[in-house]
Amino acid sequence: MITQEYLDHFRCPFDPKREAKLKLDGTKVLCERCQVQFRTREGFVSLVMEEATLPENCDHANQLPCQRRRQN
Question: Which of 5, 21, 23, 35 has the fewest beta carbons closer than 10 A?
Answer without folding.
Answer: 5
